[in-house]
Design goal:
Elements: E1 6-10, H1 26-37, E2 43-46, H2 50-53, H3 62-77, E3 81-87, E4 90-91, E5 94-95, H4 113-130, E6 136-142, H5 161-178, H6 191-194, H7 202-207, E7 212-216, H8 222-226, H9 231-245, E8 255-260, H10 272-284, E9 289-294, H11 325-335, E10 346-350, H12 365-375, E11 381-384, H13 391-396, E12 401-403, H14 405-409
Parallel strand pairs: 1-2, 1-9, 2-3, 3-6, 7-8, 8-9, 10-11, 10-12
Antiparallel strand pairs: 4-5
Protein name: Glycosyl hydrolase
InterPro entries: GH
Keywords: Hydrolase
Length: 415
């Protein structure tokens, strides 16, 4: 019997947002965690801001680490497990990089020896501080760090896929050294699956770390092109879960839907609950799903300036900790009976070459073919073209039929 799907939330403090680390108030954190636990969720993903924790390459602030541990302990008191993102990195349109990596001290985050030493040190230190906490799930290397490695970032730290391989292996090893045996992983935004020149590749996402993480946002062109109530709009998260499986070497590798949300105005507030319900239900129909971690816990306060408009209202709870309709949807799912979906027996063949992964992006032929299958009532998964004739691989995944993009697009209904 597979383990039950985990339900959690990306913790956005209601007071001070992630700047709360500068004025850490444990009572406020406890009140936030109370409002999260009341929804029946079982974990939070936590974000220590990198410049606040490691303002100098050789200084990791002990007080900041103590506060992180205090937050984890407060979560444990409320029955919440904790995953910690180490290198923050990037959050809600803002970059948080320490001064020792920028301008006069410009260092490439992925290749500079001193930068690598500093990052490794921070990840090892944070993991070690939490290693003896039973509610510590493990480390995520950082939040969507791939956005620093290529365009459209205005000042990217360019690296090759080989250099990213080395970076990932070294950083994951530091987490394992700090907290052996925990669930350590890395997580990128969907350019990994959709952008041809992105050096973080699908193969890395699906093979390095303990689980594959996917972040699903329909503002990537899905909602704009197809609409919020379309088949692609309501199944985008499930698509990324199933797309990721094509690159996994382990046919039973778990996938974590680590970020997903209902972004306005593409998903208006009055339709957010329906969108959430459809997204969650469709994701739960994916075999091997480790968990769903909604973005985010609490709204961003309107007293804070310069956020993109959509960021202010993404919370399951208001800024004064009142649950919204979306919170009720997630609560019902979290408290509901566990569900074990059947295998997905039809696999759409996708190109293994990462240089053409844009074929999988919204508007691309793989994307179109997948959702034509869904619209016709199928429950497709994906398989690489290099494995489409591998009977052992197909059998291990429960796949009994493979179809090509051309076969699908020759007929059928549009998404």
């Amino acid at each position: 019997m597979p383990p039950a799907v985990r339900f959690g939330v990306n913790y956005t403090p209601s007071e001070g947002w992630f700047h709360h680390w500068l004025d850490f108030d444990l009572d406020s954190v406890r009140a936030d965690l109370d409002s999260i636990a009341a929804l029946g969720l079982d974990h939070v993903r936590v974000f220590p801001l990198w410049p606040y924790f490691q303002p100098n390459r050789t200084l990791i602030r002990p007080r900041a680490v103590e506060q992180l541990v205090a937050l984890a302990d407060a979560a444990a008191e409320r029955g919440l497990d904790v995953n910690v993102d180490g290198l923050q990195g990037h959050l809600s349109s803002f970059d948080f990089l320490p001064a020792w990596t920028r301008t006069w001290h410009r260092r490439n985050l992925f290749t500079d020896p001193d930068a690598l030493d500093g990052q490794e040190n921070l990840l090892r230190t944070l993991a070690a501080a939490l290693a003896d906490r039973p509610n510590f799930i493990g480390m995520t290397l950082g939040n969507e760090v791939n956005q620093f490695s290529a365009g459209p970032h205005p000042d990217p730290d360019r690296a090759t896929p080989g250099e990213i391989d080395t970076w990932l292996a070294r950083m994951l090893a530091a987490c394992e050294e700090g907290a052996p045996g925990r669930l350590h992983l890395h997580a990128e935004y969907d350019a990994t699956w959709y952008q041809d020149d992105q050096p973080f590749t699908p193969g890395q996402a699906a093979r390095q770390g303990a689980v594959t993480a996917v972040h699903s946002w329909v503002f990537n062109g899905t909602a704009q092109r197809y609409g919020r109530t379309s088949v692609p709009g309501e199944h985008h998260a499930a698509y990324l879960v199933e797309l990721s499986k094509a690159w996994a070497d382990d046919p039973h590798r778990p996938v974590w839907l680590q970020e997903v949300g209902a972004p306005a105005p593409l998903v208006p507030p009055e339709h957010a609950a329906a969108f959430t319900e459809a997204t969650v239900a469709n994701a739960l129909d994916c075999p091997g799903l480790w968990g769903i971690t909604w973005w985010c816990s609490h709204d961003v306060s309107r007293s804070l300036a310069d956020f993109p408009e959509l960021e202010y209202g993404l919370g399951l709870l208001t800024n004064d900790r009142k649950p919204k309709d979306t919170a009720m949807v997630l609560e019902r799912a979290a408290r509901g009976p566990s569900y074990t979906p059947a295998s997905r027996t039809t696999a759409l063949v996708v190109p293994a070459d990462p240089a053409v992964r844009s074929r999988c992006a919204p508007g691309g032929p793989v994307f179109e073919a997948f959702f034509r299958l869904v619209a016709d009532g199928a429950r497709p998964t994906t398989v690489l073209d290099t494995r489409a004739a591998d009977r052992e691989h197909l059998s291990a995944r429960g796949i009994t039929e493979t179809v090509t993009v051309d076969q699908v697009l020759e007929g059928g209904t549009r998404p």
